[in-house]
Task: inverse folding
């Protein structure tokens, strides 16, 4: 009896192994086309997702921008030795390196006066490692919308979204009341459910659905626009539809032409797609590149959208996107896909603790990327604020010099060795007083 039962268990186990041996490869093959295999096999979002999703390449600039190194080295100086954190209701001083290594940090950069003060990598990452943005991508989307308005592809932020996505009116005429501004400020009134079963939550759908265009076009209205803030990933998806229709090109191509190459990004990036068949940028996340190139984007905003003598993003757009304001939307601390703090500081933020922090009056950009949060965003913002308070705006003639230039056609012209040729970026163009 015992031997018969044992034989039956072994047969059942063998059949199960055969089924798994067939099903798992088939399931993995199905992840490019089907939603449920992604949810069941990939499960939670991961910093390695840039290797899972198909992507569209974003080519590097022909000649890259390089930050000069402060004092000839990038090891932390005295201003970066310690930070104070709260533990059990008490504030205690801890070495910054210890905080970084214990929280899954992969990259930590500090740029002051357009010079690298610190560039540190952890857990096997280095300068050339690909980092994925998660929701930091939303701040890039915001910049692209501002550029599209400046170039006349989009009339303005108060355009109804149905001017560009008219088929929404056929589903619900209330879509005609939602404007581009409502999408950018997360106040569209579109229904968004984070809870429930994992495969039925909107967070999961907007991340894993293999046809994000169809998903966005099927969203539902819950309340009047402009009344309340709700973080909602349908908003950037709809902006992606508007951008590709208005510009006549994939959003990643627009990114390459209007931001990646004009900023002199030194390595190819990419934008993850929903699937090979659909070929739509994930929009709410999925810009992949080096930490140093994400820092360059922060420096662009620090300088009011000006880079290498050229206004890459309209100055008024930068200021409107990053100032605390409730005159046209319900959330003081969130504007056009940027999180806005007190004192004129602002940040781009992504899942698992990806941050670009900008303190204009200190001429400071801090970038932190990681495999996990380690601490909540409130703690990281406190850390960044502590560090920012230790830096003064560079003195001198009011100019920050960076090794970069453009020709008359706004094409990268290349860099001379060391500091023999410099583009001049005016620091005075974005001051606390004007914010």
Result:
């Amino acid at each position: 009896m015992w031997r018969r039962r044992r034989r039956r268990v072994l047969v059942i186990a063998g059949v199960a192994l055969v089924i798994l041996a067939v099903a798992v490869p088939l399931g993995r093959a199905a992840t490019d086309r089907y939603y449920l295999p992604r949810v069941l096999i990939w499960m939670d979002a991961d910093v390695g997702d840039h290797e899972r999703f198909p992507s569209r390449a974003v080519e590097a600039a022909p000649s890259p921008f390089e930050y000069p190194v402060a004092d000839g080295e990038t090891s932390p100086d005295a201003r970066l030795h310690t930070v104070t954190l709260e533990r059990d209701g008490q504030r205690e001083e801890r070495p910054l390196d210890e905080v970084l290594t214990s929280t899954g940090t992969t990259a930590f950069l500090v740029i002051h006066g357009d010079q690298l003060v610190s560039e540190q990598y952890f857990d096997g990452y280095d300068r050339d490692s690909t980092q994925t943005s998660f929701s930091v991508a939303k701040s890039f989307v915001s910049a692209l919308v501002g550029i599209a308005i400046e170039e006349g592809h989009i009339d303005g932020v108060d355009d109804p979204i149905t001017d560009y996505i008219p088929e929404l009116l056929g589903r619900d005429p209330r879509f005609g009341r939602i404007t581009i501004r409502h999408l950018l400020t997360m106040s569209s009134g579109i229904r968004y459910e984070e809870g429930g079963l994992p495969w039925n939550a909107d967070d999961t759908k907007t991340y894993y659905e293999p046809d994000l265009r169809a998903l966005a076009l099927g969203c539902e209205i819950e309340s009047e626009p402009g009344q309340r803030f709700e973080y909602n990933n349908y908003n950037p998806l709809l902006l992606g539809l508007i951008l590709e229709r208005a510009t006549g090109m994939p959003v990643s191509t627009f990114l390459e032409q209007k931001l990646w190459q004009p900023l002199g990004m030194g390595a190819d990036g990419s934008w993850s797609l929903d699937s090979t068949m659909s070929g739509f940028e994930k929009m709410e996340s999925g810009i992949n590149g080096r930490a140093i190139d994400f820092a360059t984007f922060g420096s662009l905003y620090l300088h009011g959208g000006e880079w290498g003598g050229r206004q890459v993003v309209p100055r008024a757009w930068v200021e409107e996107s990053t100032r605390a304001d409730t005159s046209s939307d319900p959330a003081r601390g969130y504007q056009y896909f940027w999180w806005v703090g007190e004192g004129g500081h602002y940040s781009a933020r992504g899942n698992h603790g990806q941050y670009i922090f900008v303190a204009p009056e200190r001429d400071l950009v801090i970038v932190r990327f990681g495999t996990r949060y380690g601490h909540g965003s409130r703690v990281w913002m406190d850390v960044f604020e502590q560090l920012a308070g230790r830096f003064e705006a560079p003195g001198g003639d009011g100019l920050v010099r960076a090794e970069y230039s453009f020709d008359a056609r706004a094409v990268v012209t290349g860099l001379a060795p060391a500091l023999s040729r410099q583009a001049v970026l005016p620091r005075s163009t974005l001051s606390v007083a004007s914010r």
Observations:
- The longest strand covers residues 105-112.
- The radius of gyration is 23 Å.
- The longest helix spans residues 2-30.
